[in-house]
């Protein structure tokens, strides 16, 4: 099992996304930053493919911030992302139109991570 948000977990997410062949249809760069408690990572899509990396994104189109318990609830299907945003449990920053125009790409990326979610230990502590 992989500990959620560990460096190994982020590396496995990167390998899965790279292998998926997903890329920005329009060829333009689209970056999504995730802030989960103290951990920050991001996904980048462009015409060459997609990747996941630790740390903040350079010029993210959108940023999502939430506490670990909320991120776990969303990732495991116990809470919808939309509900969490509407309830203020996930803070959204950035360009909503960029997110709308890339929503299918983000949705397909979530499908790519299904195997990773099945191999994830959700109870581990956040890396320090």
Describe the structure.
The chain has 128 residues and is α/β, with parallel strands linked by helices. Helix content is 38%, strand content 27%. It has helices at residues 7-20, 68-75, 81-86, 96-101, 103-112, 114-118, and strands at 2-3, 30-36, 39-46, 49-54, 62-66, 90-94, 120-121. Strands 4-3-2-5-6 form a five-stranded mixed β-sheet. A two-stranded parallel sheet has the order 1-7. β3 (39-46) and β4 form a beta hairpin. The longest helix is centred in the first third of the chain and has 14 residues, at 7-20. The model has no long low-confidence stretch (mean pLDDT 93).
Biggest β-sheet strands, sense, barrel: 5 strands, mixed
Number of helices: 6
Q: CATH first level: which class?
A: Alpha Beta
Q: For the record, give the distance between the C-alpha atoms at the N and C termini, rounded to a whole number.
A: 19 Å
Rounded average pLDDT: 93
Number of domains: 1
Spatial shape: globular
Could you give the order of strands across the largest sheet?
Answer: 4-3-2-5-6
**CATH-assigned homologous superfamily:** SCP2 sterol-binding domain
**What percentage of amino acids are in beta strands?**
25-35%
CATH A-level architecture: 2-Layer Sandwich
Following the backbone from N to C, one meets helices and strands in this order, namely EHEEEEHHEHHHE
Low-confidence stretches: none
Tell me the CATH topology: Nonspecific Lipid-transfer Protein, Chain A
Total count of strands = 7
Structural class: alpha/beta
Residues in helices, as a percent range: 25-40%
Q: Please state the CA-atom Rg, rounded to the nearest Å.
A: 14 Å
